[in-house]
Amino acid sequence: MATNTLDDSDGDDYEETESALETALRQLSEAAAQIDVDDGVIERLKHPTRVVEVGVPLKRDDGSVEVFTGYRAQHDDVRGPYKGGLRYHPEVTAEECTGLSMWMTWKCAVMDLPFGGAKGGIVVNPKELSTGEKERLTRRFAEEIRETIGPKKDIPAPDMGTDAQTMAWFMDAYSMQEGETTPGVVTGKPPVIGGSEGREEAPGRSVAIIAREALRYYDKTVDESTVAVQGFGSVGANAARLLDDWGANVVAVSDVNGAAYDTNGLDTHAIPSHEEQPEAVMQYDAPNTLTNEELLELDVDVLVPAALGNVLTADNADDVQADIVVEGANGPTTSAADAILDERDVPVIPDILANAGGVTVSYFEWLQDINRRQWSLERVNDELESMMLSAWGDVRAEVEAGDMSWRDAAYAVALGRVGDAKTSRGLWP
Ligand code: NAD
């Protein structure tokens, strides 16, 4: 069976023995069992609206021509335009894009964003492209899928192997062909051409907000809590620093090489994040160091796995000593580990809620673009705070009403919204 990796700036990261599509279909049937949704609606949600496949020719720097395969999978748009990342990766498949597009449907729905789910990409190793080749490939891909996307139809974003510059080229190519500057066609752009302030920090900020609310829910306070964060990248470092600023004792943070550990609390601002200096956590002068495996088993109030998928497994779930797990990465907990942690009454706050700050600020970016009005960082953060609290409240209400896990509750909220919208609109014709 294929192993799949999800990564999404609007979204996430999984390593599972089941494919992305199998995971998505399993999650759909599990969520369907939790709530009352019409069977016909569930049947419709098992299938994407469309999966577009295109050939993308590229003139290489040496003058030769190569044709790459690109995809855009659109799962469902009952609540609004499709939304999801574009990844450049050698293992991109139509099936993977379809599974990940379903996952984006739930993520947007749990946040109550007026978007549906999409995902796309090109089967290519971006490390084997020069900057010029990557630009030409991106521009031609934008042209090949131009009829499929658009600011009112489907709004891509960066994902694995793509970034703000890729989105800038994509937006320029689309705009040139449409004859008008159209910043709202993609999110994750540089702020100078319509990107949003606070977009980069948003997933980590949402993780910190949700960790704070989870602590409150379980009768703890941030300033009396200890936190361990695996991965000191965009998500992990931003979450750790905010929790530190709010008074938490961040005792351990790690990168691929291992963890810095101080029971008195680390100075998280003094440790270089992945972006500031890649893989430099161990250069920080901490009193102790740990392996990544040891970090996951620390006796802390909150554990934030924010590096990779599938780090909490059947092998270590029994050894997790944290009181609460808040998923920063996508899919850090396997379903076997989930069951063990549930049995042990260790709450796991799911990725689709905790790291959804990224897609939420993408929504703000889109609003700013279509209104031609830039928001201040303060406004972005205020609105993000209020949307995270609202989604948290919705999921918490489901947890309390249905006596279910946080993950099941988040999926129930999402599927309930999509199902209600489908029932209300009916089936055309
Ligand atoms: P990043 O590249 O900025 O940082 C990743 C960090 O993880 C680095 O510090 C790296 O050293 C560390 N790491 C890598 N391998 C490791 C290992 N084996 N053990 C421990 N640490 C390891 O990545 P990111 O953008 O912060 O993404 C982290 C996770 O969050 C991914 O699962 C991603 O899909 C997910 N996510 C990212 C965003 C986003 O917008 N950046 C949004 C939602 C979810």
Highlighted features:
disordered N terminus; Rossmann fold; 7-stranded mixed β-sheet; alpha/beta; 12 strands
Structural overview:
The chain is of the alpha/beta class. Among the domains are: 49-183, Rossmann fold; 202-354, NAD(P)-binding Rossmann-like Domain (Rossmann fold), CATH 3.40.50.720. Helices cover 41% and strands 17% of the residues. The protein is built from 13 helices and twelve strands. It has helices at residues 20-34, 39-45, 94-110, 131-144, 164-178, 202-217, 234-245, 292-296, 335-343, 351-354, 357-371, 377-402, 406-425; strands at 50-59, 65-76, 82-89, 116-123, 154-158, 226-230, 249-255, 258-261, 288-290, 302-305, 324-326, 348-349. It has a seven-stranded mixed sheet with strand order 9-8-7-6-10-11-12. Helix 1 crosses helix 13, helix 4 (131-144) crosses helix 5 and helix 11 (357-371) packs across helix 12 (377-402). Residues 1-6 and 11-16 have low confidence and may be disordered. The chain binds nicotinamide-adenine-dinucleotide.
Explain briefly what this protein structure is.
With 429 residues, the protein is an alpha/beta fold. The protein has helices spanning 20-34, 39-45, 94-110, 131-144, 164-178, 202-217, 234-245, 292-296, 335-343, 351-354, 357-371, 377-402, 406-425; strands spanning 50-59, 65-76, 82-89, 116-123, 154-158, 226-230, 249-255, 258-261, 288-290, 302-305, 324-326, 348-349. The protein is globular.
